[in-house]
Amino acid sequence: MEIIHTQSDLIHELSIARQAGRRIGLVPTMGALHEGHLSLIEAISEHCDCVVVSVFVNPLQFGPNEDYSKYPRVHEADARLAEEQDVDFLFIPEVAEMYTAGSQTRVTVGELSTRLCGKSRPGHFDGVTTVVAKLFNIVQPHVAAFGEKDRQQLIIIKRMVEDLNIPVEILAVPTCREADGLAMSSRNAYLSSEERSEATRLVGALTHMEAMINTGESHAPLVTEAGRQLITAYTGARLDYLEIVNPVTLASIDELIPGTDVLLAGAAWFGSTRLIDNRMVKVPIFS
Predict the structure, then answer these.
(1) Where along the chain do the CATH 3.40.50.620 domains lie?
(2) Mean pLDDT of the 127-150 span
């Protein structure tokens, strides 16, 4: 595995790989790699023979009061894990390498970026789509892997790729979970022992909501209210949102139509740590 810090060096190495007929895959990350990231690497390795993993804590996707400064940066540990996964190139650029002085251009994906997480994190997805577009231009991968845990991000990136005719296949990889169901996240490390125990309320709420839908409840506000009560019963929890939405437009749904797919999505703070989770559900048809 080669660790690369500049765009020019990475472009040079990948041009050689491309000339040799190798199929290039990209896994964009912010580092602090865990089993969820490793599942992305494993999945993309089945679709290509040259794997690039980027590690870049992107300042554009953090708000002024968010955790940019304390987000874990553990490059040596990331390098060990990446090498164990037979990654070919680990790209770890500095901020000045990705955003040169005077940089002004941003990539924005309309309404999709203003819903769910976008309501409480304005500008977040503009930062995500801008850095992903830059990585696509630098790496020019045949395929790129993104996790379903960040379902809104996945939907937005797919929309960007289609709208801008970017020639890359997007591979969606299922969420990796801890034994108790909590979605794996680098931010889980911020949780105290009590918060970690209570954080499963988020996945528990989604499970309860799915069960209500599967037993015939068709009024979405009743379903979401039941989920909210499960989360907020813990005094250390603060709900950002819990919604049932259209999985294409992310627009809220009031009535659940049998046979359709819906997305259950939520975000909540446990202590000072914000976690997200989601679940796709098909509304049952009762004869």
Answers:
(1) 2-173
(2) 98
